[in-house]
Amino acid sequence: MKTIGIVLAGGQSKRFGEPKALALRRGKPFLLYSVEALHPIVDEIVIVAQRCIQKKLPLQDVLWIEDEPQYKGKGPLAGIYSAIVHHEATWYIVLPCDTPFIHKKIINKLKEQADDSFDVIVPRVNGRLQPLIAMYHYRVKSLIYNCLQREEYRMHTLLSACRAKHIEMTEELPFMNINTKEQFHKWIG
């Protein structure tokens, strides 16, 4: 069972004002927290990002791609689809670049739940699904393509078309996105 980690770092970070992937927590770029959480658990890591991120953070042992041109700027579904199109695996563990409290225990819990009778393994924290920290089977490629063709870019649209296994998780901090400077100052300092 080949598993690829996908780190989504292609967003425009409008609310944050600069690329969140490069924001620092304890002197380390946010993007590295996602990469390090995935690294011991997956076979390969694909980072979906604009070239400017790659130039500023030239990581070794990862694969860098950009969104497929026709879907550039269309959100997380475009990034996931672009990675699946270029790198085949059975399962893909998706992480955003703006969760600097993520850790490998969360990723291990996801991978332990792999079950080929489901299309997606998605955590639920305090009643909220977390589709951007989830595990997707290769089969979702066609479902994502259909969403993109219909210009349906919401992750929940995809989830509603999938056979989803929900995993209850109680630890909230690893799932926290840092989207604004206010959140950054509150949680990072």
Automatic annotation (TrEMBL):
**Main localization, broad class:** cytoplasm
**One Gene Ontology cellular component:** cytoplasm
Which superkingdom does the taxonomy of this entry point to?
Bacteria
GO biological process terms, semicolon-separated:
Mo-molybdopterin cofactor biosynthetic process
Known cofactor(s): Mg(2+)
Which residues are listed for GTP binding in this entry? L8, A9, G10, K20, D67, D98
Q: What SUPFAM superfamilies does this protein map onto?
A: Nucleotide-diphospho-sugar transferases
Keywords, in A-Z order: Cytoplasm, GTP-binding, Magnesium, Metal-binding, Molybdenum cofactor biosynthesis, Nucleotide-binding, Nucleotidyltransferase, Transferase
Query: What Enzyme Commission number(s) does the record list for this chain?
Result: 2.7.7.77
Q: Which residues of the sequence carry a binding annotation for Mg(2+)?
A: D98
Q: Which residues form the MobA-like NTP transferase domain?
A: 5-158
Assigned protein family: Belongs to the MobA family.
Relate the protein's function as given in its record.
Transfers a GMP moiety from GTP to Mo-molybdopterin (Mo-MPT) cofactor (Moco or molybdenum cofactor) to form Mo-molybdopterin guanine dinucleotide (Mo-MGD) cofactor.
The free-text domain note is: The N-terminal domain determines nucleotide recognition and specific binding, while the C-terminal domain determines the specific binding to the target protein.
* Name of this protein: Probable molybdenum cofactor guanylyltransferase
Q: Which organism is it from?
A: Anoxybacillus kestanbolensis
Q: Which gene encodes it?
A: mobA
